[in-house]
Amino acid sequence: MAKKRKQDRIKPISQVAEPDISGMGGLSEPVIALLLALFGFVLYANTLGHGYVLDDDLTISLNANVQRGISGIANIFSQPYRDNCFGGCLYRPLTLSCFAVEWAIAPNSPFIGHLMNVAWYSATVALFYITLRKLIPYSNSILLCAVVVLFMAHPIHTEVVANIKSRDEILSLFFYNPQFIPVCEMV
């Protein structure tokens, strides 16, 4: 019988195991995303005891549509963002609807607003990690986690999370991330 040539010993690509580049001890991607979200929650949990600050009063506690709670949502979708404060051309009904629901649950309670901001920010961080993983699929998970932690803990985000009114910015990024994933998959 003839000797096997070197070419015969090479495995087809479909049989070659992909190298483990995660560097995260075998943690699955959802677990990593959940851990990052938990870290984000802990990082900004100190805001839970804060009151209304800066524009929070104008947007929430002095906004008649928000104070109506759930019954004010129809007006929220038909009027500008700061209808009775400054007028203007801003239109952000999803954010104000969230505030109206929170007002219906706990009227004039900044705690629930801060809790929701921290929760939305934590979820946004998890989606950001998932989006990066889709964009750069063969990158090291430790490196991606470092990027996400740097993003999450950057001081510029403190104002966004600490001001309840800034939920519009958190929601913008939260809903942007899933929209970006199909783009990443097409590339």
What is the element layout, followed by pairings?
Layout (H helix, E strand, L loop, with lengths): L5 H4 L19 H16 L11 H6 L2 H4 L5 H4 L16 H13 L4 H26 L5 H13 L2 H7 L4 H20 L1
Give an overview in words.
The termini are far apart. The protein has one domain. The mean pLDDT is 85. It is mainly alpha-helical. The protein has 10 helices and no strands. The chain crosses the membrane at residues 21-45, 111-131, 138-157. GO terms for molecular function: mannosyltransferase activity. Keywords: Membrane, Repeat, TPR repeat, Transmembrane, Transmembrane helix. This is Glycosyltransferase RgtA/B/C/D-like domain-containing protein.
Keywords:
187 residues, mainly alpha, 10 helices, TPR repeat, Glycosyltransferase RgtA/B/C/D-like domain-containing protein, transmembrane helix
Helix content: 55-70%
The total strand number stands at 0
Distance between the termini: 48 Å
Give the averaged pLDDT, no decimals: 85
Number of distinct helices: 10
Write the H/E string, N to C. HHHHHHHHHH
**Rg from alpha-carbon coordinates:** 23 Å
Structural class: mainly alpha
As an assembly, this protein is: single chain
Strand content: under 5%
